[in-house]
Amino acid sequence: MIALEPEQMAAAMGASIACSGRSGRPASAVIDSREIAGGELFFGLTGENEDGGSYAPSAFERGAWGVVVSPLTAETACAAVSPGGWVFVAEDPLPAMQALATAWRRKLGSKVIGITGSVGKTSVKDITRALLPGAVHASQENFNTEIGLPLTILAAPEGTGTMVLEMAMRGVGQIAELAEIAEPDIGVITAVGPVHLELLGSIEAVAAAKAELIEGLRPDSPVIVPADAGCLEPHLESVAGLMRFGPGGDVFAEAVEVTDAGTRARVVTPAGAAEFLFPFTEAHNLENALAAIAAGVAAGSDPEDLASRTGSIAFSKLRGEHITLGNGALLVNDSYNANPVSMLAALEYLAGIERGRRIAVLGLMAELGPDAARFHAEVGRQARDLGIDLLIGVGPMAGEYRPDHLVDDPAAAAGLLEDLLGEDSVVLIKGSRAAGLEAVAEALTGATAIGGGGA
User: Fold this and answer.
1) How far apart are CA 378 and CA 124, in angstroms?
2) Residue 113 burial (CB < 10 Å; 0-12/13-18/19+)?
């Protein structure tokens, strides 16, 4: 529940109240009237071709507590208002929603951890959420944009002690905008790599865009970065509360042992050391865990306390999901996104799995700019060097991998795999969202899955 008075909401949003309703508060905020179950505040966002306020009547029909609309649809909303419903009018409902999120964040008084990075930010968010004590609220799925982040904040219940917010970046100024909305107390930058080069032009520009998170923090706020921060280093010179994770950093793992049960490691931090047993075996997720532990320590948690919650770690969908198929083959579904850094990490993990045949199904890596073909070719060479037995490329750009098989679409890849997968096989599926490779996993698991779980 967003426990603010309607008048407080209007003031925060810079909105006027066109129709006053009954007492009570909205349960949460939505931007899709079809998601209304009863009691929500609907924001009719405006787009190039449509004003979402036109759906205000539908929102009230479904039981909305109130709506926020532009002046163009205010009359329509008031004409359709349900008994006791509220109509707020804002010049632009999106900034109004963002401002309300900031007001609710301040009202809650929660500690806010903001997480960004070229790779690993979702996994770090998932691990951080699991390890932290108390009432923790975190971003769901891909709710990490100028729309998703305020919706996440507005969904935080009263009593939330910590918010763990993922922050996506597609261009200059976006992280700064998200930081302004969320007002984070702790910043985590997981990595800087060749991602969004089509938009930003260079890795240095990517680093500068990620560093907007640092600029959005108070001067004394903790900042978590990799031990080898690369192009991010020039932005760290004046950071007082710097904590590095990984080999050579302030938070690092020693005595690492990988077994069928997961990864056991002694993690050393500035606040002491503790033994952790993680429910995953990937080396890159150990790095992600170190970033999460660093965030937990920066938030005031004891390492022993953090270690007691590793059993709660669960990853978001399409990010390293392990699924055993009906014929005994193992599917590693990492189809949510891809870039050169995360692709290499996934291939290294695949190469380390002791199975008879290791197959990689790779789609394009998007937004790599004019050097896209070179990046794809390098990943193809890395796959060969790692000893991947069979490489299947999906889509025209995937031809740069020099795969053993090149198919036009995910359906063709799924059909090919049905003939290639044996009981001793393991197949990795990975590509950018534009590749749509989740359809490969859906085709395979829909026909033959017998069980599975997150890695």
Assistant:
1) 26
2) buried
Q: Which CATH number fits domain 109-312: 3.40.50.1820, 3.30.390.50, 2.40.50.140, 3.40.1190.10?
A: 3.40.1190.10
For residue 296, count CB atoms less than 10 angstroms from its CB and return exposed for 0-12, middle for 13-18, buried for 19 or more: buried
What is the secondary structure of 116-164 as a DSSP string?
E-SSSHHHHHHHHHHHS-SSEEE--TT--STTHHHHHHHTPPTT--EEE
Do the strands 66-69 and 29-30 form a parallel or antiparallel pair, or are they unpaired? unpaired
Task: Output 211 or 352, whichever has higher pLDDT.
Answer: 211
Q: Residue 336 pLDDT > 90, yes or no?
A: no
User: How far apart are alpha carbons 251 and 226 in whole angstroms?
Assistant: 10
- Pairwise CA distance, residues 86 & 80, whole Å: 11
pLDDT at residue 153, rounded to an integer: 97
Q: What is the pLDDT of residue 448?
A: 41
User: Please, what CATH class does the domain formed by 321-454 belong to?
Assistant: alpha beta
Cα 350 from Cα 342, distance rounded (Å): 12
At 11, list the tokens: 């003031």
- Alpha carbon of 71 to those of 11, 47, 92: distances in Å? 17, 14, 9
What whole-number distance in Å separates Cα of residue 63 and Cα of residue 96? 21
pLDDT at 452 over 50: no
User: Domain coordinates of the chain in residue numbers?
Assistant: 6-97, 109-312, 321-454
Residue 352 predicted with pLDDT over 90: no
Q: Which fold has domain 6-97?
A: 3.40.1390
Q: Tell me: the pLDDT tens digits for 249-284? A: 999 999 999 987 899 999 999 999 999 999 998 888
pLDDT tens digits along 27-37: 999 999 999 99
Quick: pLDDT tens for 93-137.
Answer: 999 999 999 999 999 999 999 999 988 898 999 999 999 999 999
Tokens of 389: 């037995």
Residue 450 has pLDDT above 70, yes or no: no
pLDDT of residue 447: 43
**Mean pLDDT rounded to a whole number for the chain:** 91
CB within 8 A of 191, min separation 6: which ones?
117, 118, 119, 120, 226, 341
Alpha-carbon Rg for the chain, nearest whole angstrom, is: 23
d(CA 20, CA 389): 66
